Amino acid sequence: MAGMIIEKEIANMATFLNYIYTNYKERTAFSFTAGNEQKEITYGAFAADVNALRHDLQARGYCHERIALIGENSYSWIVAYFAITTTQNTVVPLDREITLSEASRIVKECESRLLIHSADYRSFAENLAAETGIGLLPMTDFPVSGADYQLLSETAENPDDIASIIYTSGTTGSAKGVQLRQKSICLDTIITVERLDLWGSTLLLLPFHHSYAWTATVMCSLLSGIILGINQGMRYMMRDFQVIKPTTIFLVPLYVETFHKTLTREAEKQGVSVASVAKAFFGGRLQVLVSGGAKLDGRYVDAYKQMGIELLQGYGISECSPVVAVNTIERHRIGSVGPALSHTLVKVRNPDDHGIGEICVRGDIVMAGYLKNEKATADAFDGDWFRTGDLGYIDEDGFIFITGRIKNLIILSNGKNVSAEELEQDLMCIAGITEVLVYEHEDKIMAEIFPDVAFWGTEDEAQLQKLLWTPIEKDNAEKPMHKRIGELKIRLTEFPKTSSKKIKR
Q1: Can you give the CATH number for the domain in which 440 is found?
Q2: Torsion angle, CA of 504/164/65/76, rounded to 10 degrees?
Q3: What percent of the chain has pLDDT over 90?
């Protein structure tokens, strides 16, 4: 299908919207709960709703503007994104957990004149308006589409126009505005769909403001013409699994790990196979889980295989729209994030004796640069190669392996370099460890652990220290001296995380 799509030259959001309307207008696009009713909206009705809001934005005089967008996952959020990006405007999605001060900084930096917000964010929006003077458009004021969709001009948006500015939450430092072109988001969607055969339905669990959630879960699903179930919160997840009966779900590793623990525990409690529990849990049709956003322990691939579910790991970064590589059912390698997508070049910069170096990416999926930050943009490129900041290697068959982040590399006084992520992954294999962070402390490797107190049967830190040292020392014995944990710190609260569920370092 992707070859056919590329021939049709989907290079901007207008042609994307035209394509899904023309090919799928009678199909159900979205399914979600509104009050006590399960609501379904066709691709045709979705396009008409986008068109109505497009005309409203144009009537209000918004053109070549940066329009901020905030709210929980919802149908209206998706309508707003498409309406903004098909009216020669740029969307600035705001993290739904953002602070008022950070939102104010972003609005001022982007010079946004309008914030579109959901009802749940009314108070936040009013406070932001009072601080910045930004105009407000509540989603509850969206116009009702009163006419059928009319195909948009394919030249309405230049493919090189900036469609979106994503402020990466980051695990360290202040967020930078990643400028993604219309053609970059569309091409990344096309070549991801080329790699993944999506059919049936999916349940959207990840926050839309995150680039992985937007491109992989929303854009790829729409391009494939499948049903998108919109989950409106974790408390509704079990209900939504049963209603939507997803065939594919896109997740981050935290969900993969949590689901595995939940399913395994329930199977043991019931005395039945984990496969039967998983089938009932996910609604009965789930075939594929795609994991991205952070490193995934390869042992989960076999664990889900035993449940009858294919677990495919991918790799991406916001600056690359964001998907760079992903495994497939037919061609995959455990521990790898898969080969690079078509139309995308990946190389290893300054490899060491083991072939490990910085992963760099070149192609039209790469960002146009950071907004108003020429130094950061220059630092991020080596010629026309984008420097991801991730360490890894590429095997002889083109499979990419990520070993860690450059900024998280522990450099000891003896000159030895140690990947914090590698040690964290090993420690997470120890039963009774819920979360862990590894870092250097006074030239020793420190492991800070959030334990499963129910597993250990105590909340006493001294007792937990003693209990955990036993399996850690056993793990240490199998490692060279420079990779051994030297100190252990216990915490009784979970680590603060980014919106993509990565631990903030």
Answers
A1: 3.30.300.30
A2: -90
A3: 80
